[in-house]
Amino acid sequence: VTYQTESFLDKNRDYVVVEHHNLMSSSKCTFIAGLFPSLPEESSKSSYKFSSVATKFK
């Protein structure tokens, strides 16, 4: 199978909901938890940096 990755990051800008991020970062599976490091406490404020699924692949 051959995959085309051109524009992958541009096409996959779905954001990660803070609650989902917190759930994944608390996973007992170290691989999954490592993909979602804990967010700073101020992340619930408007200064929160946009996080998308695609940013995990940068």
Automatic annotation (TrEMBL):
Family assignment from sequence similarity: Belongs to the TRAFAC class myosin-kinesin ATPase superfamily. Myosin family.
Stored InterPro entries: Myosin_head_motor_dom-like, P-loop_NTPase
GO cellular component: cytoplasm; membrane; myosin complex
One GO process term, biological-process aspect: actin filament organization
Keywords: Actin-binding, ATP-binding, Motor protein, Myosin, Nucleotide-binding
Origin organism lineage: Eukaryota, Viridiplantae, Streptophyta, Embryophyta, Tracheophyta
Residues in Myosin motor domain copies: 1-58
GO MF annotation list: actin filament binding; ATP binding; microfilament motor activity
Protein name: Myosin motor domain-containing protein
